[in-house]
Amino acid sequence: MKLAPSLLAADLAKLAEQVRLLEDVVAYFHLDVMDGHFVPNLTYGPPVANALRRHTRVPFDIHLMISRPARYAPAFEVGPDDVITFHVEADDSPEQTIRTIGELGCRVGISLRPATPLEKIVPYLNKVDLVLVMSVDPGFGGQGFMPEALARIRALRRLVGGRPVTIAVDGGIGPSNVRDVIEAGGELIVAGTSVYGQPDPRRAGLGLLEAGGCTRA
Ligand code: DX5
Ligand code: ZN
């Protein structure tokens, strides 16, 4: 299990400090980019991500919940260990978006809403590094985990087979269900409320790793 805490639940006025709290124990920082069009909420975009990029060596997992991801992905300053994830339902061609993100020199992730059939991403499994399974409807932090996600993770695990594709899971994950997510096949756990939404995010992050059966990332 690896942890990617979502900064959506962090104190956004102190991002650099919030990142420092957990940088020795997490695999990625997860950045939720929302455009008020693909999802009914707005967050932050390339200027904030790029400013924060200079404050930590921990890779970023940039979750684009935006329309036309291929148009905006090049504005993110990324390196070989960062991931940019887009949604298969966004209105660009997934093939083109995968190419555009790959040309930035980072890893490529694809995500899908809970209601989207897994079959939609099967054609791209040979071309991406990561699949982000949503266990809530994208758009807001703090929602309840959808238990149906567990069967989807298991099914995806079978579809991925021996390919070098990381299965990430995002939404409503905390100490009470992280074990189920891992047992189903989740490898990278995205968690906002249960980490940065807690009074002591470092303690909460370490607690979540421990609940998942892992003491360090
Ligand atoms: C939801 C975002 C998630 C969110 C998770 O649209 O993609 O990354 O921050 O937050 P929690 O852990 O609170 O569900
Ligand atoms: Zn996310």
Explain how this protein is built.
The chain has seven helices and eight strands; from the N terminus they run E-H-E-H-E-H-E-H-E-E-H-E-H-E-H. The protein starts with a strand and ends in a 6-residue tail after the last helix. Strands 1-8-7-6-5-4-3-2 form an eight-stranded parallel sheet. 28% of the residues lie in helices and 19% in strands. It has one domain (2-212): TIM Barrel (Alpha-Beta Barrel), CATH 3.20.20.70. It is globular and about 40 Å long. The protein has helices spanning 15-22, 46-53, 69-72, 94-103, 148-160, 178-184, 201-211; strands at residues 2-5, 29-34, 60-65, 83-87, 107-112, 130-134, 166-170, 188-191. Strand 4, helix 4 (94-103) and strand 5 (107-112) form a beta-alpha-beta unit. It is of the alpha/beta class and 217 residues long. The mean pLDDT is 97. Zinc ion binds at residues 6, 30, 32, 63, 170, 190.
Describe this protein with a few key phrases.
binds D-xylitol-5-phosphate; 217 residues; 19% strand; binds zinc ion; single chain; alpha/beta; 8 strands; eight-stranded parallel beta sheet; TIM Barrel
Provide the fold topology.
Elements: E1 2-5, H1 15-22, E2 29-34, H2 46-53, E3 60-65, H3 69-72, E4 83-87, H4 94-103, E5 107-112, E6 130-134, H5 148-160, E7 166-170, H6 178-184, E8 188-191, H7 201-211
Parallel strand pairs: 1-8, 2-3, 3-4, 4-5, 5-6, 6-7, 7-8
The chain binds D-xylitol-5-phosphate and zinc ion.
How widely separated are the two ends? 7 Å
Task: Outline the low-pLDDT stretches.
Answer: none
Please state roughly what percent of the residues sit in beta strands, choosing from under 5%, 5-15%, 15-25%, 25-35%, 35-45% or over 45%. Answer: 15-25%
Secondary-structure arrangement, i.e. CATH architecture: Alpha-Beta Barrel
CATH topology-level fold name: TIM Barrel
Oligomer: single chain
Mean pLDDT: 97
